[in-house]
Specification:
Elements lengths: L14 E7 L8 E9 L7 E4 L9 E5 L2 E5 L1 H10 L6 E4 L1 H4 L5 H17 L2 E7 L6 H14 L4 H4 L15 H7 L5 H10 L8 H9 L3 E5 L2 E4 H18 L7 H17 L9 H8 L9 H4 L19 H16 L34 H4 L16 E2 L6 E15 L8 H7 L10 H6 L9 E2 L4 E2 H9 L14 H6 L4 H14 L4 E5 L4 E4 L8 E5 L6 E6 L4 E7 L1 E2 L6 H10 L24 E5 L1
Parallel strand pairs: 2-4, 3-6, 3-7, 7-8
Antiparallel strand pairs: 1-2, 1-6, 4-5, 8-9, 10-11, 11-14, 11-16, 11-20, 12-13, 14-15, 15-19, 16-17, 17-18
Helix pairs in contact: 3-8, 4-7, 4-9, 9-10, 17-19
């Protein structure tokens, strides 16, 4: 909304404009001055973090004789921060940056994290308190700090405060001993964290880098330290009592503040703040310009050089270029976890995540929060090449297998029907003797899954849990209890049914070479299974026979081939004299030439 003729060009690339908000009383018009300052010199200013808000009914800001249109929400913030007797030096993005100059805008965005980091304080404007909730929320914060945080040593006697969703058996005693917030108090805190500031793309960086920061909600002021203590207290109450009353919108929104403060206080390595980790957390946050989903994290990630701020570049190219740079620099394909083909924007390539959407691919979701134990391409590194159109990426790997049938019937657990489909046998027709010999009865006591030499019971136990601890999926699926169960066809059916329940619509798949796996719900027969170099898991691709290129469908789990076994097969096929008992070379694939041929996949 700012006027172009208000802004003088910067003399150097290390300049910023600061806004001097002139003093005034409650009903006075807003006015102030802009001045250009050398950012490398010592400066004193406060930075404002806010949500732009609706552009209807804008307010005039008199800036050096120019009437600059600003939103009602920003006008309310400036009135709240204005002093009656002295000027206040602020940095406000929409006022201090010439938004009409794309070159300046790109350069200032590049400096944004430094601007907020250098500010003496970040003033976080949450908005007007139109429903008079702020006083109740403030009281709830104080109550949680006083009654829970200050007594955390007492609470620790009942529950491990650093544990993961541990529910105390003494919930009633905890509720009786500690004065817990009322329902209305919790709801007021819930409304606090429902404010749009907590869901805005840029606020993450503005909050994270600030040396000092304070929340303002209407006339009320909240110390960030108290809000963090209140949120942790609420999390402890949820863990210690198991009461869903405490598992509200608050913990979903506020968990970001808790984790951000914790990661700054207890650094646990750079991986926590790499491009993929942070943008996955921030996907779906609100912004007018989709490019800001990428640009807003540049200043806080450890590999910020991957992001080139350029507002003349279309958002689709920004997403594609950032994805390709991450793959090239990291040498892995972890970022494919965020690709959701069923939800993809039609104008995005299949291999580029649509970070505008909150949804993430549910396949292998249970494994993402853990240290994933999969290494299907061993120590190999991804070597990528991005096309000049930003629409295609070239990756190397092995064209390993293809899907022939899938169990996509929610009520179907008998795997025989898959093979009937392969042989074009009608589902309701009785098999003759020869056909029975050709089909594998997965639930037979004589069945052996050749890749792992497992019987049906052990094969489906591991397949149902993606070869992870069964307790992560269902307390009923623990190894001790399963060992006592009869190895019956009915029990194996129950394992398959449990697997389908926890895979959230994913499907069991049967491949051309009689391998079993779990694939995305939108996969279909004819899709190929590729072992791409740098990938933790096999990738499902859809071939386009018209041009020989592929569409990315998503990640998969292929039982018995998640730890380099497919590469051992490939080497044996290439060199029949190779001794498959020697697998030490799998640890050195990133250092030299691969001992097997690969295919170049062009993914569009």
């Amino acid at each position: 909304m700012a006027q172009v003729d208000l802004y003088d060009a910067f003399e150097t690339t290390r300049c910023v404009r600061l806004f001097e908000l002139l003093p005034g009383k409650r009903g006075d018009a807003l006015q102030g001055h802009l001045r250009v300052s050398n950012f490398d010199k010592r400066l004193y200013y406060e930075a404002v973090s806010y949500v732009w808000g609706s552009e209807t009914d804008p307010v005039d800001l008199n800036c050096d004789g120019h009437q600059v249109k600003i939103t009602q929400n920003l006008a309310a913030a400036l009135r709240r921060f204005r002093r009656e007797d002295s000027a206040r030096t602020l940095w406000v993005d929409s006022v201090c940056i010439n938004q009409a100059n794309l070159q300046e805008r790109s350069h200032q965005v590049h400096m944004m994290s430094d601007i907020y980091r250098k500010a003496s304080c970040v003033l976080i404007w949450l908005g007007e308190d139109e429903e008079n909730d702020a006083s109740d929320a403030f009281a709830c914060v104080r109550q949680l700090v006083t009654n829970i945080w200050s007594r955390k040593e007492d609470l620790a006697r009942y529950v491990d405060l650093n544990g993961f969703m541990v529910t105390s058996k003494n919930a009633d005693e905890i509720k009786a001993k500690f004065k817990l917030p009322s329902t209305d108090a919790i709801k007021s805190l819930d409304r606090l964290f429902a404010i749009s500031w907590f869901d805005r793309a840029w606020t993450f960086q503005e909050y994270y880098v600030a040396r000092e920061k304070t929340f303002f909600w209407g006339l009320h002021l909240f110390l960030v330290e108290d809000v963090v203590k209140a949120l942790r207290s609420l999390l402890w109450l949820h863990r210690s009592t198991g009461d869903k009353f405490f598992d509200l919108h608050i913990l979903n929104k506020g968990s970001q503040i808790i984790s951000d403060e914790k990661s700054k206080s207890f650094r646990t390595g750079e991986e926590r703040r790499d491009f993929f980790t942070i943008i996955s957390r921030r996907r779906g946050t609100s912004c007018k310009d989709p490019r800001d989903l990428v640009y807003s994290i540049k200043g806080i990630i450890t590999n910020g050089s991957l992001i080139e701020v350029d507002y003349s570049q279309p958002w689709r190219e920004t997403f594609a270029a950032s994805t390709a740079r991450y793959i090239s620099s990291s040498g892995n394909l972890d970022i494919f976890r965020d690709v959701c083909p069923g939800e993809q924007h039609a104008m995005l390539p299949s291999w580029v995540p649509d970070w505008r959407a909150k949804v993430r691919s549910p396949l292998l979701r249970m494994t993402v929060s853990l240290a994933r134990p999969y290494h299907c391409s061993a120590s190999s590194k991804a070597m990528s090449r991005l096309s000049s159109s930003y629409m295609e990426i070239r990756l190397h790997g092995i064209l390993w297998d293809s899907i022939i049938a899938m169990n996509n019937q929610e009520t179907e657990t008998d795997m025989i029907w898959m093979q009937k489909k392969i042989l074009n046998i009608p589902r309701d027709r009785t098999l003759d003797f020869q056909e029975q010999q050709e089909l594998v009865n997965f639930c037979s006591k004589d069945f052996v899954y050749l890749p792992t030499s497992e019987d049906a019971f052990e094969c489906y136990t591991r397949l149902a849990c993606l070869d992870l601890d069964p307790l992560l999926f269902d307390r009923r699926l623990n190894r001790q209890s399963m060992s006592k169960e009869p190895k019956t066809e009915g029990y194996i059916h129950s394992l398959i049914k449990s697997q389908k329940q926890y895979m959230h619509g994913q499907n069991l798949a049967f491949t051309k070479y009689r391998r079993l796996g779990v694939v995305p719900g939108w996969a279909r027969p004819g899709d190929v299974v590729a072992i791409l170099m740098g990938g933790e898991v096999p990738i499902i691709l859809r071939p386009d026979l018209s041009d020989g290129k592929y569409t990315l469908i998503g990640e998969s789990y292929m039982h018995g081939f998640m730890d380099g076994e497919a590469l051992v097969e490939a080497r044996k096929q290439s060199d029949p004299s190779y001794d498959t008992n020697d697998t030490s070379w799998l640890e050195d694939l990133h250092e030299g030439q691969l001992p097997f041929p690969t295919t170049e996949f062009i993914i569009k």
